[in-house]
# Entry
Amino acid sequence: MLPARLLHEIEKTVKKPVSEIFDLIAGTSTGGILALCLSMPDKNGKPKYKALDVLKLYEDEGKKIFNKSAWKTTISLGNLIDAKFPIFGIEEVLDNYLGQAKLSEALTSIIIPSYEIEQRMPFFFKSRKAKENPDYDFKMKDVARATSAAPTYFQSLKLKVTPPVDYFALIDGGVFANNPAMCAYSEAKKVFGNDEEIILVSIGTGQLTRQITYDESKDWGVLEWARPLLSVVFDGVSATVDYQLKQLLSDDTNLKIISDFRLLWILEATTWMM
# Structure
């Protein structure tokens, strides 16, 4: 909700939709859902949603996405042997908002990280690649589902593809790119070249503030570490990328706002894991 509110203010100020403001958008997990919705066209080729519309997605559909019944809690032994939330809620919401739209239809360039667990490799959904290769032109709702399949929260996605591989087994891209800013910066350098001026706008969703003290954690085993470890990984990955880009784009870097520059919008996914 925080990034959606901020993007709403940007749209009001610039008087343009997000897809016309940014040359490239990267988003992981909940950030990926925002990126896909705000780059989705309507039947006339115009942006279907404004940031305020996507804000309502979270306000109106949050309970459906995070719907945990007493029966689900019981059979999963309190989330110990099954995903915390059933997938029908999030899949219904994504279908309602994204329908049959394809990645190649995105109104601006987008990059959405996910992770393939069987081949053990990062997997990037790119609108640029979808336009070049129909085999990688996936439905936006499937891309959103893949990037938000947070381990222990939602089950992984089995995405059918054309041979020689039958399917990809995908989970939340936050396991390696919770902050996809470096992914986007690298993509921008490849696509736009080194001579382009780049303005990078990184919008997070807050940060974890609860401490894990030495005294409480020093004797933890697998069971005790299972839940907090994922948040530690996500938070550490985000902070590392933030550090790296601050070194690359430090105050003494010659970045000028000129009439012809590339604007990147990065959506982190920190609080999806609350």
